[in-house]
Amino acid sequence: MKLKHVIQAAQFERSWLEEEFFPEVRGMEGVVEKGGADILYGKHMITFFYEPSTRTRCSFEIAMSMLGGKVVFSTENARQFSSVAKGETIEDTIRVLCRYRPDVIVLRTDEEGMAQRAAQVSSVPIINAGDGAGEHPTQALLDLYTIQKEIGRIAGISIAMVGDLAKGRTVRSLSFLLAKFPDVKIYFVSPENLRMRDDVKNHLAEHGVWFKEEGDLREVAPKVDVVYQTRTQRERGSLVERMQALKGSYIVDKDILSLMRKNAIIMHPLPRNEEISPEVDDDPRAAYFRQAENGLYVRMALLKMLLT
Ligand code: CP
Asked: What is the pTM of this model?
C-alpha cells in the first residue's frame, strides 16, 4: 500500500500496520538514538494549524528535522495569522500553498471534514492532524503502536475508553483502527450525554467488534488491559462541570489504580486536565508520557513512507 494522504484511521490495513508500518517505526527509534538521518534531505513541510497544539505540531516538525527535511512554514493559529482571517476557504488556501512547492502539508482544522476537502484539491500529501470532532489518525497510529509495545499484542486486548467520547476525536480514530484486529473488547465509559457517536458504534457492529457502554470506571477498570482516558472537550462545548459532578466514576486516581490489573496500562492523548490525578504519574502503568514520545517515531515513519 503506497500512502498518498493520511485522512482517516480506517484507511489503513492491518497487514500494512503490522508488516510495514510498525517495523518502520521501530527503525525510527534507532534513527533518533543515533541523532538523526538525511533520508528527507531537500523535502519541505508546511504545518498549517487552526487549533493550538503542542504534541502533534512539535513532533511533526522535529520528525522532519530529524530526517534532514525542512519546515518551511508553520502556524498554529491560522484563523488569526493567515488569510483564513480574510475569509479564504480551505480549498483556496491549499491550492495556493501547493504552488509554493511543499512536499507535504500537515493540517489541523477546527471543523470535521476539512482535511478531506483539503486532500481533494491538493497536489501534495495532506496529513490530517485533527479535524474538529472528526478524526486524529496519526494519534491513533501512535496509540496503536504504544499498545503493541506496552502490552505485546493488539488482537484480543480489552480497552476502556473513558470520558468525553462524544466530542473527542482520538477515541473515534482509535476505535476505527482497533476494529481491524480480532477479539478486541471495547468498553465506552462516559456519562449519558457524552456517549460515543452512532457512526463509530455502527462501524464496530458491522465489523463484529464487541463493545459495551458503561457509566462507572470502577466497574470496568479490573477487566481491561488498557484504560484510555480523555479530556473534556471544553472548546467544543462539553461541560466540564458535568464531569466534575461525576468525578468518582471517571477520574483515574489511586483508587482506580488499585482496581486495575498489575500489567495493565493507562493511556491519554494529552493534554490532561483533572481526569488523571498527578499521584498516578509515578506508577509504571502510567504510559501516557511514553505514548507521547512514540508520536515522534510514528510521525518520522509516516513522513518517510509518504515522501520516499
Ligand atoms: N494529543 C494531541 O493531539 O495533542 P496536541 O493537541 O498537543 O497536538
From this structure: 0.96
